[in-house]
Amino acid sequence: MAKEAQQYQVNHEKIEELLSLKPDLILASAYSNRALIQLMQKLGHQVETFPLPSDIEGIQANITRMAQLLGQEKRGQQLVEQMSQRIDQVIKQQPAVHPKALFYQPNHYTSGRNTLQDTALRVAGWRNLAAELGIEGYNPIDIEDLLMADPEQLFTSPYAPNSNSLAEQQLSHPALQRVTAGRKMIEIDYKYWICGGPMIADAIEQLHRSLPQ
To answer: Domain extents for the chain?
Structure first.
C-alpha cells in the first residue's frame, strides 16, 4: 500500500499541522498522544480512537467501524465478506493433526498469545508453540526453550530487505536448522502484521501453503 499512501500529506501529529488541515475526522490509535487527542476534542473536532487488533474479529470490527464513519458501509461489508471467505476456505482445509511451529524474530523475539501471528498460525492449521509455552504478546524466548519445544517449522518476518544486523544473524544459528530437521526458516513479510487489516488473509494463506505435505 506504499504507493497509495504517497498521495496523502504527511503529518507529524502536531496540533498546528492538524488544525491547518481542517479535518472533518481525526483517526487515532492506542499509541497516539492522549493530550493532543483531548485538545482536539475540546476544540470541537471528532476524534475516533481505534484499538490495535490481535485477532480476525478485531480486524473486522475496525473495518466495519471505519466504513460507518466514512459513510461507506457497503464497501466495508464487502471487504469483511471477502476476507471471511478466504479465511473460511483455509479453515475447511486444516489438517487433522496440526504440526508444531514458532515465529522467531531478531533478538530472540517470538509471538505468543494475543498477537496476529498467533491467530494466523492457528487458523492456518499450525500449533503455536510460543503460546503453548505461556508467552504473551511479543516477547523474547530463550533459544534453549525454543529447542526444547521441538518445533517442526520456524517462521520469521524480515523488517527490511537486504539487512544483516547482529540481531538478524542469530536467525542463522545452526541449532535452529537441526531442530527442524534441516527445514529452512520461512519468511512471511512483515507488511502483513505491521497493522491489523484484511491482508491478514494473505498471511494465513501463505502459512497454510507451508504445511507439510
So the answer is: 9-50, 100-209
What angle is formed at CA 76 by the lines to CA 24 and CA 50, rounded to 5 degrees? 55
Please list the helix, strand and coil fractions of the chain in percent, rounded to the nearest 5, in that order: 50, 15, 40
What's the pTM? Answer: 0.89
CB 95 within 8 A of CB 89: no
Q: Find all residues with CB under 8 Å of 79, minimum gap 6, and list them.
A: 63, 67, 198
Determine the Cα–Cα distance for residues 76 and 63; give it in Å rounded to an integer: 6
What is the fold of 100-209?
Rossmann fold (3.40.50)
Residue 39, C-alpha cell as written in the block: 485538545
Summarised one tens digit per residue, pLDDT across range 43-94 is 999 999 999 999 999 999 999 999 999 999 999 999 999 999 999 999 999 9
